[in-house]
Design brief:
By secondary structure, the protein is of the alpha+beta class. The chain is 28% helix and 23% strand. It is globular, with a radius of gyration of 13 Å.
Length: 117
């Protein structure tokens, strides 16, 4: 891997990691994984949705602290073929993170917005 350590992507799906690497290459900005694979109990603790893609190694949350990095991450993900993206801000509208999701069992070609907890 060029952009991630084994620890950063531990328990993530190999195909998803490849897509994540491609997205990072395209984006040209650091991808700092703040949440990757989660055990189901950990997912409940952090307030994740039931049956989260994180619990199957098919999702990551990436830190994003500016509109420019938000855009670069999202564009890189789309250009790499990611079909599920969530973008989050704090209550004042400042970017916090981008969720990249590779779960093909869920709706594709979707993007959603949320306010970070």
């Amino acid at each position: 891997m060029k952009y991630f350590t084994e620890d950063e992507v531990k328990n993530l799906d190999v195909g998803f990691i490849q897509k994540l690497e491609k997205a990072r290459e395209i984006a040209g900005v650091p991808f700092v994984i703040t949440s990757g694979y989660r055990l189901p109990g950990d997912n409940v603790t952090v307030g994740g949705v039931q049956d989260s893609a994180h619990t199957r190694g098919l999702a990551v949350d990436l830190r994003s602290r500016s509109p420019k990095s938000h855009f670069a991450i999202i564009k890189g993900a789309i250009d790499a073929g990611v079909k599920r993206i969530g973008y989050y801000t704090d209550r004042d509208g400042r970017p916090t993170h981008v969720h990249i999701d590779g779960d093909i069992s869920l709706s594709q070609d979707v993007m959603w917005y949320g306010i970070s907890k």
